[in-house]
Amino acid sequence: MEPDAPMFDAESFGLTPQQVELTTLCRELGQSRFQERAARYDREAGFPTENYEDLRRNGLLGICVPAQYGGMGADYATYMLAAAEIGRYCGSTALTFNMHVCSCLWTGRLADDLEMTAQERETHERRRALHYRRIVEEGKVYAQPFSEGGPAAAGAAAFQTTARKVEGGWVVNGRKIFASLAGHADYYGVLCTEVKENGELRRRDTLYLAVPRDAAGVRVVGDWDPLGMRGTVSRNLLFEEVFVGDDEQLMPQGAYYQAASRWPHMFMTLTPAYMGLAQAACDFTVRYLRGEVPGMPPVKRRMYPTKQLAVARMRIMLEQTKALWVRALTDARIDPSKEQVMRAWAAQYTVMENANELAQLAIRTCGGQSMLKRFALERIYRDSRCGSLMLPWTAELCLDRLGRAALYEEGESDD
Ligand SMILES: Cc1cc2nc3c(=O)[nH]c(=O)nc-3n(C[C@H](O)[C@H](O)[C@H](O)COP(=O)(O)OP(=O)(O)OC[C@H]3O[C@@H](n4cnc5c(N)ncnc54)[C@H](O)[C@@H]3O)c2cc1C
Fold this sequence. Notes:
The protein is α/β, with parallel strands linked by helices. The protein has three domains: 132 residues, Butyryl-Coa Dehydrogenase, subunit A, domain 1 (Orthogonal Bundle), CATH 1.10.540.10; 92 residues, Beta Barrel (Butyryl-CoA Dehydrogenase, subunit A, domain 2), CATH 2.40.110.10; 145 residues, Butyryl-CoA Dehydrogenase, subunit A, domain 3 (Up-down Bundle), CATH 1.20.140.10. It has twelve helices and seven strands. A hairpin with a 2-residue loop joins strand 2 and strand 3. Bound molecules: flavin-adenine dinucleotide. Flavin-adenine dinucleotide (FAD) binds next to strand 3 and helix 12.
């Protein structure tokens, strides 16, 4: 098999040696292993267990574990570029991988940028060492359940899942929906709200706790038969009087709230899966029109001017999407400017909407036989539809925030 070309060539996009190394590793794994398994995970709505074995064997579970803890020490942009190469071959693997990697990015590079007291920093160092050891030495996988079906995941209210302080730890109660890796992760990195004495739930009291999969009171409930991203197995989780020890606190009190307001690009980590799908839709179209897709009817279609125009339009959309996305990745930092945050919303919207737009253009251009289930395009089309739904930066919420931010400066109102 001819190796696929990189999505982001090193010279044009100024990739660092580590970015070249990790994007190459992910592309090779994707092309040689994940690609052929993707149809089965999709058909069965089954978790990509074999892909996780490959990620584990290649050290990729520790991609964002800082080097001093035995991980690869990749920064935000490096992770994003590498994960996009995974999404190109299996959207569900890339999306679930994001949930796992966030548990390392948030507690690692992001937490290093946040303000903490010396005592908090010391405790955080000790606790994250434990958490990283599980990942690097034992190959453990983390999920990231925060959605509850209400305004909390949109950043508009406190999480209704609660944590009550007790001797030696916390007691967690609540329900999460759409928990990717449900039943397959070793730990659930749960966002919940610390219950204060007066019972009030406030966003600034958000806690980030690792709940072991087999802790008493944890249940995976509901079925999973969705349109797309079927391999994510995003079932619901119930927590009923679940006790976790103090060391399961992944970040100090208040740190998540600080990160969400000061490191907003943390919410863009859902995009690489869809950036990869956008590339996959274009890759498929070119191969199909050239008559190179295995199992396709033996007819080339590239000589028709309408096909050429359609491919040109797709290429332009792909280049626009990549350029804006990489620009936004490079902007990611603590306390970004208003311009940089607006660009991040624009990039998120663009990737999520364009991935699906490209997939639908691909089907229209390749023609009826291209949407048969034996080809990847049909799955890419369904998977790509899910991107705009991901909170807190859904396509709608990005538009909402961008419009307001463009027209109002801080403190302005029309009252
Ligand atoms: C394949 C897949 C995998 C997922 N994996 C995970 C995961 O691992 N972890 C996780 O936590 N979540 C995950 N999600 C969930 C996702 O992030 C969203 O939370 C979910 O899609 C929201 O569904 P909903 O029907 O509640 O949406 P909505 O009804 O759109 O949103 C829920 C609430 O958000 C607020 N809201 C939504 N839109 C607006 C708006 N325009 N203006 C103001 N408020 C608004 C409202 O309060 C609304 O009730 C996944 C989703 C999918 C599709």
